[in-house]
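Hi P.,

Sorry for the delay on this. The queue was packed all week, but I finally got your sequence through. Input first:
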Amino acid sequence: MKRFLSTCAALAAFAMPVAAMDDDIVKVAATGSVAETMDALEAAVTKAGVAVFARIDHGAGAKSVDMDLGDSQLLIFGSPKIGTPAMQDDPLAGLYLPLKVLVYQDAEGKVWLAYENPTDMLDDLTIANDAAYLGKMAGALGKLTGVAAGQ
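Then the structure:
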């Protein structure tokens, strides 16, 4: 069953509209503005019954100190039902969880959703690469960012 879940998560990740992967970072091209994309992501996370812990506007933070960063927002969210088993396997997983997705506009004006692949994110810990919760995290991130991207 674990192999089946891992395979399904891997296939789901490849089916998502991933535009680029930089090492451990998955980037998904979005069709809306940063604010629209973040609103869509937050709505998708909430609709899925997942807790939103924080929405951080990095661009506004930069403006508050008279610096320019451009549009960039981070959503922090998670499910204790999925994250707790990871922290039970290795308490240091708490350094990486809850999950995070960054929505930002690049220098060319393109809007992206970006997140770290959970298997890569936790690969320095004593967590098995085939742990069922890793597949669930990856599948959720792929689905939620796909919905938010408008694809």
